[in-house]
Design a protein that fits this description.
This protein is an alpha/beta fold. It has nine helices and twelve strands. The strands form four sheets. Strands 2-1-3-4-5-10 form a six-stranded parallel beta sheet, with helices on both faces. Strands 6-9 form a two-stranded parallel sheet. Strand 1, helix 1 and strand 2 form a beta-alpha-beta unit. The N and C termini lie far apart (38 Å).
């Protein structure tokens, strides 16, 4: 099997590059090789390599900046994704794509299921939902994995930001009224492989995230404690941190359907966070 991977240098793409090689011949691309801001060029890349499987780990993820760059966010997260879906269908290939908990409005009182109504609050969330819809409309074989609060030992993410700020500031102020489940990119890559290694690869839309839930403040406290840092962390409300993009206050995902059909479940977020800091050399 020939696999075409985009976003190989990102926090998810770097993990996928290591794990996907076990499935077949892997062509791992960075932005210079597969630029999602140039959707027209993507078709040429796919046609050149003629993969059996396309794994799209690239995305526009600058949540706040997207509010002032809606066209670019839409081009990368929707138009380019549509091109990949069209090319995959033409080849009879399968497309794996990653979406976000930000497609929801955060008003739920229980973890979100795949069938729950969407209602993104931001340009980023809207662009990611449009990408999902483009794949579904085009059809063909596809797997869409919604996740949230992704972190890794590299890139731009909440965990690394907390570690950096704790070394720069005498105390931190972190919101305590946004709830989700921090998910290690290594676990998301492992979940992807579990879905693809089944006798019949999993297809459709699924939620995949670490088990449990926590507020941003709880996660920040846990990160610093694991790293052995004593910087005080004060809980505050979201409205004390005005930002261009609105975030859902509650975006916990119900991953039971994926666990049942893929036979894979990510462990509790705090256990996996400890493993990341330990193995990633962050503590």
């Amino acid at each position: 099997m020939k696999i075409l991977l985009s976003g190989r240098t990102g926090q998810l793409g770097s993990e996928l590059q290591q794990q996907l090689a076990s499935l077949g011949e892997l062509v791992a691309c960075d932005r210079s090789m597969m630029d999602l801001s140039n959707p027209q060029g993507l078709a040429l890349v796919v046609r050149r390599h003629r993969p059996d499987l396309i794994v799209n780990a690239a995305a526009y993820t600058a949540v706040d900046r997207a509010e002032s760059e809606p066209e670019l966010a839409h081009r990368v997260n929707c138009e380019a994704v549509g091109v990949l879906a069209q090319e995959a269908r033409a080849l009879g290939a399968m497309l794996v794509h990653y979406s976000t908990d930000f497609v929801f409005d955060g008003a739920a009182q229980r973890p979100y299921r795949e069938s729950d109504p969407t209602g993104p609050l931001s340009v980023y969330g809207s662009s990611k939902l449009a990408g999902e819809q483009a794949i579904s409309a085009i059809g063909g074989r596809h797997l869409i994995l919604r996740t949230g609060w992704v972190y890794a030992a590299r890139g731009n993410n909440f965990v690394l930001t907390m570690l950096r700020l704790a070394g720069e500031q005498p105390q931190l102020r972190v919101v305590d009224d946004q709830f989700g489940a921090p998910t290690w990119s290594r676990d998301l890559a492992a979940a992807t492989l579990a879905a693809l290694r089944r006798p019949e690869p999993l297809e459709g839309l699924f939620h995949v995230a670490a088990a449990g839930q926590a507020s941003r403040w709880t996660v920040a406290c846990r990160v610093l404690r694991l790293a052995g840092l004593k910087t005080p962390v004060t809980p505050v409300a979201t409205d004390q941190f005005p930002a261009p993009a609105r975030r859902p206050q509650y975006s916990v995902l119900d991953c039971s359907r994926f666990a049942l059909e893929a036979g894979f479940r990510i462990a509790e977020w705090d256990e996996r966070l400890a493993a990341c800091l330990r193995r990633g050399g962050l503590s």
